[in-house]
Input
Amino acid sequence: MKLPLLFVIVAVCAVMSSLAVNAAPLATVSAVVSGAETDAVEVRGVIETMNRSVSERNLPGILKTFAEGSVKVDLFPAHKYGAAAEPESDIVKTVTLNKRWQAVAPILFATTKVYKRKIDVVDLHIDKGMAVAWLDVETETLSVKEGATTKFNRFKEICILRRYDDGWKIVTVTNNRHDPT
Output
């Protein structure tokens, strides 16, 4: 059975305390681990909030997860998958995330009955005030067109976040629809 590191540290501190051993150094380690775990929970929470807000058609909820000046990096064309997603040029396109979602959300919300994003944070690295998350994203889309069928797509997405005084915010997003999972 694998126990979480924080649980092990707390248990060792409790045992050492009961043996009248100085557990202060371990308590410090525990606080650091706890801080890292808190950051991981908060980073995942921001990413989940952004994606849940998209699924709930909540533009203000989407926008509040972005840092001012945050950027979307388009390495591949959006809404094309597999070989169809070949880059149209060698130029990497960028746009602020706020502008992108302020333009895309009204169209997306008006042309779909359902658009849901399900995410899985596959990998997460946090280094002080910066976090990088690698996501598997699955979308479920049902158009408003008569007779439309539900479509499912999968792709990878990378989010870079920064810690601010008021919490973690997304500063950069890019995705790869060219090589779907």
User: Anything to note?
Assistant: Residues 1-33 have pLDDT under 50 and may be disordered. The first helix runs from residue 5 to 18. The radius of gyration is 21 Å.
